[in-house]
Amino acid sequence: MIRLCNSMDAEEIYRIINDAAHAYKGVIPDDRYHEPYMSMDELRSEIGDGIAFWGYEEGNRLMGVMGIQDKSEVALIRHAYVRTDQRKSGIGTKLLSYLAAMAGKPVLVGTWESADWAIRFYIKNGFHLVAPDEKTRLLHTYWTIPERQIETSVVLSNSLGSTAVASPAGD
C-alpha cells in the first residue's frame, strides 16, 4: 500500500534512507559521501522545505520511501530509497509511478552521475537525461545544493523535450 508518511514515520524514513544510501559508498565522490548519509536534522529540514514523503508499506512496515516537492511548474522527486533487502521487488517503480501521476505536471529527478543503477531505473520508468547545460540550469533553478553536487549530478525528466519545463520568470 502506498501512503503519505507523517511525523510518526520520521525514524523509519531515516533508517530506510541511510540503509539504502550505503550503495553510494565508493561510487559517488568521496567528498560527497558521509555517514549517516542524511542526518535526522537534515531529514526534518527537507520536510520543512516542502518535501512530502510517501511510503510503500507491507504488513505495517515501510519498505521504501520517496519524496515529492512541488516547485510550481514542475515537481521534484527527492530521496527515493528502498530497503536493501527489498530492492528489485518493484517498490521503487510503484512509488515513482504513483507520484508522477499524482504530480500532474513535468517531474524532474536529480541523482549522482556515477549512480548508473539509479539512472537506469529512471530511464526504464520513462524518464530521460537532460542535456548538460539544461541540467545545470535546472539544478540552479529548482534545487539548493552545493556546486560540487551540481558538477557530479545529472537530471532526468519525464516530459518530452525541455520545452515542457517552463523557464522561471525573467529568464
TrEMBL record:
* Residue ranges of every copy of the N-acetyltransferase domain listed in the record: 1-148
Matching SUPFAM superfamilies: Acyl-CoA N-acyltransferases (Nat)
**GO: which molecular function terms?**
acyltransferase activity, transferring groups other than amino-acyl groups
Q: Can you tell which superkingdom this protein's organism belongs to?
A: Bacteria
Q: Which InterPro entries match?
A: Acyl_CoA_acyltransferase (IPR016181), GNAT_dom (IPR000182)
UniProt name for this protein: GNAT family N-acetyltransferase
Species per Swiss-Prot/TrEMBL record: Paenibacillus soyae
Source taxonomy lineage? Bacteria, Bacillati, Bacillota, Bacilli, Bacillales
